[in-house]
Amino acid sequence: MIGHNGSGKSTLIKLMARQTQLSGGSISLDGKDIAHWNQREFAKRVAYLPQHLPAATNLTARELIGMGRYAWNGLFGRQTAADKQAIAEALHLTHTEKFADQLVDTLSGGERSRIWLAMLLAQQSRFLLLDEPLAALDIAHQVEVMQLVHQLSRDLGLGVVIVIHDINLAARFCDHLVALHSGKLLVQGDAQQIVNPPSLEAIYGIRLNVIPHPQTQRPVSFY
Fold first, then answer.
1. Which of 37, 127, 135, 209 has its CA 20 to 30 A from that of 29?
2. Are 175 and 10 within 8 A, CB to CB?
3. Who's near 218: CB < 8 A, 6+ residues apart?
4. At what angle do helices 81-93 and 109-122 cross, to 10 degrees?
C-alpha cells in the first residue's frame, strides 16, 4: 500500500485490523463482516503490527513473542507444548534464536523488527497487516526485513499487506501495489503497471524517472 503522506494508508490498514471503527461501508474476511468475528477468532486469522510499537520494557524476546499466543490461550494463559513449539518455530523462521533470552530494549532496530515479526508468526494467523514496519530502520535493515517478509510469505503461504513509503522496495518485493490519494483508491496493479512516470506523478505529484533494475528488471524510480 503506497501513497503520499496523509493519503489514508494507515487509516485503511487500521480499519482492516479492526483498530478503528468504520464510519460506513464494510470489510469482509472469508465472506463475513469483520465486525462479526469475535476477537480471538479474528486474531487467529489476522495479525497486525502497528506503526508505533508499544513498549516492551523488561521483556525478553521470547516473552514478547509468547504474547502472540493470546489468540489461542488468552493473554495470561498457561503456555502449552503447542505454544512453546510455535514460539520456537517463530524464533527459527526469523533467525532470532540467539536473541531469545535478551531484553528486547537492548536489541538494535533491525533485531527488534524481527522479534516483533516473530510475535506475529507465533500468532499463526493467515494474514499479516504491517503498518510502516521499515520507518525507523536504515536501508540495510529495511532490505533485510523486506526479504524476510517476502520469503515467509512464499514459504508459509501468508497473505501480507504492508504500508510502505519506499516505492522501489515496494516494486522489488511486492506482488501487487495499491496506491491511495486523498483517502481514495487511485490505481492498483503490479510494479510494471504502477511504477512508471505518469502513475507516479499522479500518486506523488512529482515527475520521476524510471529505469529497469539491471538484475531483476523490476522498475526503479529516481528524481
1. 135
2. no
3. 171, 172, 191, 195, 212
4. 140
pLDDT higher than threshold 70 for residue 141: yes
* Cell of residue 73, nine digits: 490461550
Confidence grade of residue 74 (pLDDT, cut at 50, 70, 90) = low
Burial of residue 205 (CB within 10 Å: 0-12, 13-18, 19+) is exposed
DSSP reduced 3-state for 130:
strand
Give the span between the Cα atoms of 182 and 9, in whole angstroms.
10
Q: Are strands 219-222 and 46-49 parallel, antiparallel or unpaired?
A: unpaired
The SS3 assignment for 175 reads: coil
Asked if residue 195 belongs to a domain, the reply is: no
Q: Judge contact between 34 and 115, C-beta under 8 A.
A: no
What average pLDDT is seen over the chain?
94
Who's near 198: CB < 8 A, 6+ residues apart? none
Q: Is 185 inside a domain boundary? A: no
Domain count of the chain? 1
Residues in the chain: 223
